[in-house]
Amino acid sequence: MIKTLLINSIVIFAGAKLLTGVTIKNYFTALGVAVVLALLNVLIRPLILLLTLPLNILTLGLFTLVINAWIIMLADSLVEGLKIKSFGWAFLYSLVIALLNSMLLFIVG
Predict the structure, then answer these.
(1) Is residue 103 pLDDT above 80, yes or no?
(2) Which of 22, 70, 87, 88 has the greatest number of beta carbons closer than 10 A?
């Protein structure tokens, strides 16, 4: 669990460096963002997925990407030191995080 959290924080920090619409203060802020995102994904995400299930079925699961962006915007409002310019940047940031996280977890194992 700690290994996954550290990998997520590296991905969050690297993703913010790749995108101009996302700024992050330092690595420790990225670690805080990783913790907040983990808590939001455990506590809030299942409820939102349940409430939006019909819409998610109609879009063949693509609405989940919008939910991920919304959760990142929520983390932006909760964590000082993370700044995302708009919902579009949050959407792109969620895609970058997912891609980098998948690649890094595949490499590290």
Answers:
(1) yes
(2) 22
**38 burial type by CB count under 10 A (0-12 exposed, 13-18 middle, 19+ buried):** middle
List of residues 6+ apart from 48 with CB closer than 8 A: 67, 70, 71
User: In 41-100, where do the E strands start and end?
Assistant: 82-84
**HEC profile of the chain:** CHHHHHHHHHHHHHHHHHCCCEEECCHHHHHHHHHHHHHHHHHCHHHHHHHCHHHHHHCCCCHHHHHHHHHHHHHHHHCCCEEECCHHHHHHHHHHHHHHHHHHHHHHC
pTM of the model: 0.89
